[in-house]
Amino acid sequence: MEEIKNIALVAHDNRKKDLIEWIEWNYTSIIRHKLICTGTTGIMVEQALKNKLVNEEFDLHITKLKSGPLGGDQQLGAMIAEGKIDVIIFLWDPMEPQPHDVDVKALLRIAVLYNIPTACNRATADFIVSSSLIGQKYTPVTKNYESYIKRDVTLA
Fold first, then answer.
1. Is 152 a catalytic residue?
2. Average pLDDT, the chain
3. Domains present along the chain, CATH in parentheses
4. What predicted TM-score, i.e. pTM, was given to this entire model?
5. Are 66 and 75 in contact (CB under 8 A)?
6. Catalytic residue among 18, 59, 73, 86
7. Are 114 and 143 within 8 A, CB to CB?
8. Burial code of 111-145, b = ≥16 C-beta within 10 A, e = fewer?
9. Is 2 in contact with 84 (CB distance < 8 Å)?
10. What is the pLDDT of residues 62-93, one digit of tens each?
11. In what order do the strands lie in the sheet with 34-37?
12. Strand partners, 63
């Protein structure tokens, strides 16, 4: 990971307001990084940051993917597998079943597989963006899955 991180920002509908409040509170820590957002979350994040930066000259780096249920979670998962995501802030709603729960589970699984720092609540997100590592080069330890890839998969 370079000093400038690729930070994914995702929020379920009932948590979008929380994410925007978190962005507004932490904007000085995240605006120097590249942001990747799913669906309408990206539009809301962009607007919130523009409102905070109204009198400042700053180049925002926001990539907007599809909405989660329309494939955005899977796009994000592919970016993780390609090494294009460094951190995930994913405020998901633990009280509301989602029509794309399997995609959410797959996204969280791939984040763990690739050892991506992942925050699923505001407190953890605060810890991540306030860490000295957020602005430094960092090489995460990743598990070598070579033996898994080369395993015998003989068909019976």
1. no
2. 90
3. 6-149 (3.40.50.1380)
4. 0.89
5. yes
6. 73
7. no
8. beebebbbbbebeebbebbeeeebeeeeeeeeeee
9. no
10. 999 999 888 898 999 999 999 999 999 999 88
11. 62-64, 34-37, 6-11, 87-91, 118-119
12. 36
